[in-house]
């Protein structure tokens, strides 16, 4: 269905281009999304293992993957395009660093002058610096910018990830009724997405109802839904390493006039931001257009950025906020997510996954908005 090899080759080519531009002899990757970008390893997503994957990129060689020695047979059979170097297995995150510096140093080419990296701990920096007298150069910003503009294959995968997220959103809508808890709704979403083929949820579903929505509680709870609640549903799915996450505000029963008024202001503001999405628009212009409508209506400013890029990480370059003057580019995929939160009334928030096209934008997420709040 997807040309995974072409996708993998294009990502590696992007890294080689960065290395050529920065005159690098090698590149060390420690951030999980970057390691997957380079090697296509599907990591174990958990607190215990999350930082125990690393990669070294050397021009004209297979990307090198450093991971647990338990990965030996998996890598041999499923990742023939990488060169593998084992690390100790079943060790807590962080403690592998004492071994990592030695292993990385041994993998680097002779007479290395300049080594790029995305993020190095002090231990790793010290170990490499002491072993090799090379310059260490940060290239994280260059990698983020490369990842921000998606190729055709990435867009195809992101569309499938979005479809899986929509299945989770529909599961919440189908099960939303008085008496059900936020946690139960989150479980329904995760079950539906995994059953449909998602690799994993993009993040812990954030389902907030009633006062939890008003204070922007960021995790689900055992609170039971009651009639009149606004329910902010923020969830997503991961597919082939790419995340698709978005948000809908739902309502149980008849919404109050105050809640409907609040939502209509939000929707007007949200629409004002979407209208100016096109290549060349500075992301701060989207932020300001949305906040102005909310401010003019007399509602409080929301305490978070207006949006973010999305791809192999939930939040990628660029951040859509007041300060950022990054211009949109064709091929970027962004999320726009303003909200209004008023204690005693509730909270409302909308978010979509949006592809920047040659002349404007295309919305990838298709879940309808809550008609009872718009009418």
Q: Sheet with the most strands?
A: 6 strands, mixed
> Would you give the CATH topology of the largest domain?
Creatine Amidinohydrolase
- How widely separated are the two ends? 40 Å
Named at the architecture level, the CATH assignment of the largest domain is Alpha-Beta Complex
**The CATH superfamily title of the largest domain:** Creatinase/methionine aminopeptidase superfamily
* Domains, number: 2
What proportion strand?
15-25%
Strand order of the largest sheet: 4-3-2-1-5-6
Shape: globular
Number of strands: 17
Helical residues, percent: 25-40%
Class by SSE composition: alpha+beta
**Average pLDDT score:** 94
CATH class of the largest domain: Alpha Beta
Poorly predicted parts: none
Q: Element order, helices and strands?
A: HEHEEHEHEHEHHHEEHEEHHEEEEEEEH
Keywords:
single chain; 6-stranded mixed β-sheet; 21% strand; Creatine Amidinohydrolase; 5-stranded antiparallel β-sheet; 12 helices; 2 domains; 375 residues
What does this structure look like?
The chain is α+β, with helices and mostly antiparallel strands. The chain folds into two domains: 4-147, Creatine Amidinohydrolase, Chain A, domain 1; 152-374, Alpha-Beta Complex (Creatine Amidinohydrolase), CATH 3.90.230.10. It is 38% helix and 21% strand. It has twelve helices and 17 strands. The chain has helices at 4-22, 32-39, 72-78, 97-107, 122-131, 140-148, 152-175, 182-196, 211-214, 257-275, 283-296, 371-374; strands at 26-29, 54-57, 64-68, 83-87, 114-117, 135-138, 200-201, 206-209, 230-239, 242-251, 307-309, 316-320, 333-336, 339-342, 346-349, 352-356, 361-363. Strands 4-3-2-1-5-6 form a six-stranded mixed beta sheet, sandwiched between helices. A five-stranded antiparallel beta sheet has the order 12-11-13-16-17. Strand 14 (339-342) and strand 15 form a beta hairpin. Helix 4 runs parallel beside helix 5 (122-131) and helix 10 packs antiparallel against helix 11 (283-296). The radius of gyration is 22 Å and the shape is globular.
């Amino acid at each position: 269905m997807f040309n995974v090899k072409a996708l993998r080759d294009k990502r590696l080519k992007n890294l080689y281009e960065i290395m050529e531009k920065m005159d690098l002899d090698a590149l060390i990757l420690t951030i999980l999304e970057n390691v997957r970008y380079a090697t296509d390893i599907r990591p174990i997503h958990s607190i215990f293992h999350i930082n125990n994957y690393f990669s070294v990129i050397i021009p004209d060689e297979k990307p090198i993957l450093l991971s647990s020695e338990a990965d030996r047979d998996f890598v041999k059979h499923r990742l023939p395009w990488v060169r593998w170097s084992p690390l100790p297995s079943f060790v807590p995150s962080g403690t592998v660093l004492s071994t990592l510096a030695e292993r990385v140093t041994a993998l680097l080419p002779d007479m290395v002058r300049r080594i790029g990296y995305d993020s190095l701990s002090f231990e790793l920096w010290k170990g490499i610096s002491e072993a090799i007298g090379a310059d260490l150069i940060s290239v994280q910003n260059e990698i983020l910018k490369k990842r921000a503009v998606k190729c055709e294959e990435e867009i195809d995968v992101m569309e499938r990830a979005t479809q899986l997220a929509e299945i989770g959103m529909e599961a919440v809508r189908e099960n939303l009724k008085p008496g059900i808890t936020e946690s139960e709704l989150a479980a329904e979403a995760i079950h539906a997405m995994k059953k449909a083929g998602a690799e994993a949820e993009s993040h812990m579903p954030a389902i907030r109802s009633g006062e939890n929505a008003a204070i922007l509680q960021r995790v689900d709870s055992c609170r039971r839904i009651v009639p009149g609640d606004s329910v902010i549903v923020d969830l997503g799915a991961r597919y082939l390493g790419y995340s698709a996450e978005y948000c809908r505000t739902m309502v149980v029963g008849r919404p109050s006039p105050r809640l409907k008024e609040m939502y209509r202001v939000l929707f007007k503001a949200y629409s004002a931001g979407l209208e100016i999405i096109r290549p060349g628009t500075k992301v701060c212009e989207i932020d300001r257009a949305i906040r102005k409508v909310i401010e003019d209506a007399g509602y409080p400013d929301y305490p978070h950025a207006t949006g973010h890029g999305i791809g192999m990480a939930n939040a990628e370059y660029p951040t859509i906020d007041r300060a950022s003057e990054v211009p949109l580019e064709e091929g970027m995929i962004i999320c726009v997510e303003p909200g209004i939160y008023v204690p005693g009334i509730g909270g409302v928030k909308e978010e979509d996954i949006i592809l920047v096209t040659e002349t404007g934008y295309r919305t990838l997420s298709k879940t309808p908005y809550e008609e009872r709040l718009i009418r």
